[in-house]
Design goal:
Largest sheet: 5 strands, mixed
Shape: globular
Amino acid sequence: MKFLVLGIGNVVFADEGLGVHLCKQIEKNYEFKSEKHSIDFIDGGTLAMQLSYIIAAYDKMILIDCIDADEAKAGDVFFFPYEAMPSKISWSGSAHEVEMLQTLQYIELLGDLPQTHILGCVPKRIEQMSLELSKELINAAKIMEDTLIKHLQKEGFSCKKVANHCLQDLARSFYKN
């Protein structure tokens, strides 16, 4: 099976870039192996609908993004299957989140949506032209990393840590990666 880890977010809006930064951090910090599966890590940025043909080429996808949820606080982490999205998840934090939800619905309507899990976090700071991540988001990213690694191990991947790139450093230098 072909797996996709898709990082979504606007990297120049502080915490909003979480999906992209965490996707890159995990790709750089780990080596993944499986006899049955392949895995790709893609920076989806804010492309949403333009990612449709890419997403449709995979069997399983883990989408990493900022989300909004009723009664949630900054740094709260959520991991759920797309088809069992909790009702308290609203995906209304930014324009690209709404577009990403619409993109998933569109691909689903066409019958091309891979089995999808959402790994999301409630952001604290969404500021234009800022590369600084909040303390809450950096702490949440560690939980998200563990969640993703455990999920991929259950799917049959061996995951070996090979580096220790810092999330904030990657955010500050995203344009160089």
